[in-house]
User: Fold these one by one.
Assistant:
Number 1:
Amino acid sequence: MSEGIVYGINPVDEALKGRRRKPLELFVARDGGSRVRALADTARRRGVPVRDSDKRELERLAGNARHQGAVLRIEPCSYVELDDLLKIGRDRGEPAFLLALDGVTDPHNFGALLRSAAGAGCHGVICPRDNSAPVTGVVERAAAGALEHVALCRVVNLARTFDLLKREGLWIYGLAGEADHALYSVDFTSDLVLVVGSEGKGLRPNVRRHCDQLISIPMQGGVGSLNVSVAGALSLFEVVRQRHKG
């Protein structure tokens, strides 16, 4: 697997902490401001080589012009096994809390969902090997460093994975706009997986059939649906609210 690329001030700052992946080399704009210079200082203190670069080089590395003067080469994204995800919650003494993505192919949505999952304290994110956005610089920037905090698991078949998780005592809740059960009426205090579908099509039929319950977000004001990353974030933090109320 090739090395990863992280760009942008905040994503690079998080990646330099090296919780999950080793930073390899930092490229910074020669005329970068104080925040870029601070990143360079941090990198040097941690033994990460720093290279002054011009605008063209940074754009080539990042693949676009939104690098904010900093691009970091980093070890590729590593994936964990399903058992490792379950172990995270057990080690913390917490009910299992996982997010599954069924066909989320937009890198901005993928990154935003990773960020929300990390912020909610989700133990890990499950995505299929196929029909899912790969981890790219765009995903890393949208995630804003979340991949340093949340575990990612790739599986061959989501439906079979759900069967395995059910045998471990987890409940599978799928988000579906037409579902009769509202998000706020469901008890999320037990071991669970939240499942969000693709942009536009939602959950695939076979994935729906393997969910224990389909849930919807009550909508008002004439808007029919929410962006998948927004819907995912609302659902993740409803779990947090229920588990931390009082």
Note: The chain has a mean pLDDT of 92.
Number 2:
Amino acid sequence: MVQASAPPLTLDAFLQLPETQPASEYINHQTIQKPVLQGEHSLIQVALCKTIDQVAESQRIAKAFSELRCVFGDAAIVPDVSVFRWGRIPRAPSGRIANRFEVHPDWAIEILSPDQAQTRPLEKLLHCVEHGTELGWLIDPEAESILTLSAESQIKLFRGSQVLPALTGLNLTLSADDVFNWLHLPN
């Protein structure tokens, strides 16, 4: 007896599913649950949002969001950090921020968790860049390196004191050393 396989899940069907903790994502007709946050990952994620917002928010250049679902290009992804230029932040007719972001981030950042392969986070960043995201970062705390992807399809690896690229027009000067030094808490 031959059994027909179930048709792949659609984006609309995925969006009707109950939320999971940690969040589940939908890309290439597959549902994948994000790994549970751990110490290094969490600290880098929070510090990045604070650092980006310190430079960008007061001047209304951009805003960083943590674990925000973005639905675009037939995918629903939840980058660890999503940065949106101020004028692209979705808003309700009242002017309040929208709850659903059905647009790509301008800058998407993924942070590898221990024992997590690079393939899935890199797939998400490539999807972002292919759909209009200007910049992607893949942060690897274990290797103390940051892989960047740009809209021009350039991939570069940064370590040490090399200054990392940021969104155009954002005066943010960070190196890989700066990011990984956040992991050394004072006694």
Note: The radius of gyration is 17 Å.
Number 3:
Amino acid sequence: MTVRDRIEEVYADLSGQELRAAETLLAHADDLAVYSSAELAELSGVSRATLSRFYRRLGYESFAELRDEARTMHVLGVPLANAPGVAIGDHLGDEVANLRRMMTANEERIAPAVRLLVEAAHVVVVGHRNGYPVALHLREQLAQVRPGVRVLPLPGQSLAEDLVELDADDVLVLVGLRRRLEGFARLARWAQASPARVIAITDPTGRRHAAGADVWLECPIHMSGPFSSYASAMSLVALLSNSASTLMADAGDARVTAITNAYATLGELEGR
């Protein structure tokens, strides 16, 4: 297990100081070998004693063991964040590992999520920052097979006036991928207290925000390089949408046909 894996396992139960330590280690997971424990304490704003306890909670005897692991990973070919590049094979390996983990983690959760998406009177999908393209793509796909699907927030708009319309027949999908807005936790709490059913789509560090959701769908995004990949989240969207299409059956097919005919009438799509 890497330090990222260890942190993700305990992330939902961390205290305030532990969260600061965890975020610092996650931000520097690819170049921990070049830092001292004192430097990490300064970066995270917690004491060295707190960091030492946190290392032990992750299963390390000391920071020295964690740093040795980081150095070993680098020797084995795992690049530092400031390395000149990432090998294509390593990138592919990361993508495949993320996809496999996404499918395994969500195997028992997909069917309940799809039923909620199909049976809801209205579906509202909310996403900010890295979550917004995923939210928009989910809306675009679901809208092909069922009516009443919206994505929020609209450009330049707030959320409250749209969210207060949700009732017990509706589903609210929250997409929150690192690095989330500061207000995501408040939004998650509000959603869970609302009458609507809630589906949360997050990376593993969002587990704590999804505690009260009806369904939590996990999307690993870790890569060997300094940037995350959202391929697993887009793959999840395809899985949800295709499954929803199957469950919608004739009603979904009829909507697809109507939309296709409208495309042709309006001349909106490129011809062959």
Note: The first helix runs from residue 3 to 10.
Number 4:
Amino acid sequence: MLYYVKRFDTLQKIANRFNVSEQSIIKANVICDPNYLTPNTPLIIPDSNIDLPKSQGQPPYYIVQFRDTFLCLSKEFNTTVNNLVYMNRLNPNMIPTGYEILIGNYLQSPDELSKLWSDTGNYKCDELSEYQVHNIYYNGSFVWQALGNQSIPYLIELLNNPCDIVKYYSIVSLGRIGSSNNKVISNLTKLINYENELVSNAAKWALLRISLVRDHSKRMHVTTTESRIYDSPDLNSNSFSVPAGSPIMSLNWSIPSPTNEKNIFGETQLYDRVRFFTTGQDGYLPRVGFNEINAI
């Protein structure tokens, strides 16, 4: 089940309330300091009959909590402190509470990635399977984000690739980086009237995301499909519809379905807890396909 931490809660109190061990709760969630729990944080209360992925511990993002440390998070996410610092361009001596960080294995040579994207698009565009698009382009968009501003010249060049899949994910990648670089803005603006509606819409969404990052923070994102936001991580709970291109703010990434709902590929359905920016409503946005976030 899912439990929201209340003021004055302790791990021991919660464990006793649900007749589970403190260690089992720690194992099911990202908890760096067992002596401090942030109020309103959703915790998975483990069920011995259900095997779930670690809550808030799955790529691509994580929201830093009070008393988190680089050392703790590197162990939680099976990476290194240096990787976390590099991918997120952070001061190694300080990790800011409330900051959204990349947590996946997203380090790769930009030359190699650019060649892979370009060659695959040139020769296999119409033959790509859903898995190939996910593995090469969706995952690759976070590699470009991890590389940061050095990605921009490569991505602007990739916008000229004849394959619309390459164009789309290059746009998405620029939106993920969130840079207000004049060349980025100019090239994305040109694509607003592109003949393929998915590409033209992506350009609008990426430009909106860049402006939201500039005016607010990297926790601001833009939905890329028409979606439903649910009251809880349960497809049977109450929900409301949000159109593609809707601004949302990330609250907690990667909450597994407590009842172990499955996605279309038989994996545990993951949800992201978000706030719908226009109305201030909170809810859970289900991931799509291979548990992909449907937002830039």
Note: The first helix runs from residue 11 to 18.
